[in-house]
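User: My collaborator sent over this chain with a note saying "see what the structure looks like." That's all I know about it. Can you take a look?
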Amino acid sequence: MITCHLRYVIDPYKLAEFEEYAQLWIPIVNRMGGTHHGYFLPSEGANNIAIALFSFPSLAAYEDYRTRMASDQECQAAFELDKHNRSIVSYERSFMRPVLG
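Assistant: Without extra context I'll predict from the sequence alone. Here is the result:
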């Protein structure tokens, strides 16, 4: 299993717009073979950092998801929403693996 960790720098004045964007992606990732663990929005501390976590069975499955995103209408609509809202300033993507005991 591979977990994608997305760290977003968001416009703190557009938190509602970012939340709308985030809510679109949870069912999309789940529909496309992943497991979305949720978005985590600012509460205390920095008001411009948000996190998303989702997993795929393998890096190959994640890469297949990324390929299919290009032709998926819901994915493209979500991207267009943020192009319009401009709530995301930047983001970083990291991949992690679990330590199972």
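A starting point for your reply to your collaborator: The longest strand covers residues 2-10.
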